[in-house]
Amino acid sequence: MRKVIVYSSVHHGNTEKLVKSIAEECQVDLIDAVKQPDADLSSYDTIGFASGIYFSKFHQSILGFAEKNLPDDKGVFLICTYGGSANYKSIEQILGKKHSTAIGKFGCKGYDTFGPFKLVGGIAKGHPDEKDIKNAVEFVKGL
Ligand SMILES: Cc1cc2nc3c(=O)[nH]c(=O)nc-3n(C[C@H](O)[C@H](O)[C@H](O)COP(=O)(O)O)c2cc1C
């Protein structure tokens, strides 16, 4: 069973922290969708999309990548980090078009200094922490 996670982590590297730990502990390839906006995913059985949440959506690079490169009928899982709350709708809309549904979803807080939060030193400071990382690894192992 080959697995890959396509990720985007442009704010503080919060999501990257999670997926790098996952890749170290599970047999998972990583693709940074910002650096590599296209890839052939046909050889993978299970595909993960991981992103920070920006204006209630997965990062545009992930949405564009999935729209172009996600083959139909794959097992897909979703991971996000967020300052306020998780939101999977943007990517789930694309999965719908590809006849896929998420086989699992995982989200945790991620340090956020966007806009006014910067003035107060940011929110969700220290996240993802060790526990978040452990939970994310367990999530992927359990898929
Ligand atoms: C431009 C921008 C918009 C954001 N919008 C949201 C949002 O709508 N909801 C939310 O919960 N967090 C929001 N955040 C916080 C990020 O989702 C959070 O910090 C996330 O962990 C960033 O992940 P990254 O470091 O992997 O990019 C936003 C951050 C930025 C920079």
Description:
It is a single chain. The protein has four helices and six strands. The protein has 143 residues and is α/β, with parallel strands linked by helices. The protein has one domain: 3-Layer(aba) Sandwich (Rossmann fold). Strands 1, 2, 3, 4, 5 and 6 form a six-stranded mixed beta sheet that branches. Strand 3 and strand 4 form a beta hairpin. Helix 1 packs across helix 4 and helix 2 runs parallel beside helix 3. The longest helix is centred in the first third of the chain and has 12 residues, at 14-25.
List its traits.
single chain; Protoporphyrinogen_IX_DH; Flavoprotein-like_sf; binds flavin mononucleotide; Rossmann fold; 4 helices; 143 residues; 30% helix; six-stranded mixed beta sheet; 6 strands; alpha/beta; Flavodoxin family protein
Short description:
The protein is of the alpha/beta class and 143 residues long.
